[in-house]
Design brief:
Length: 66
């Protein structure tokens, strides 16, 4: 999950695995695999950076044994 900021300064948490694409129009629009569109304050580059950091944490954090 990554935290993004809507244009009205409201924080939202987005499932990074559900992001289909991100575009600048010039506002940044995140489109999910369900077709939902979210306009956010972060740049396209920042969204990419957050997704990469999230995926890196998922791959490097050891899982706890049950």
């Amino acid at each position: 999950m990554i935290e993004l900021t809507k244009l009205q300064n409201a924080k939202i948490v987005v499932n990074a695995d559900m992001i289909e694409f991100v575009e600048a129009t010039p506002d940044t629009i995140v489109t999910t695999s369900t077709g939902k569109k979210l306009m956010v304050q972060e740049s396209v580059e920042k969204v990419i950076e957050l997704v990469i950091a999230y995926k890196r944490r998922c791959l490097t954090t050891p899982r706890k044994k049950a």
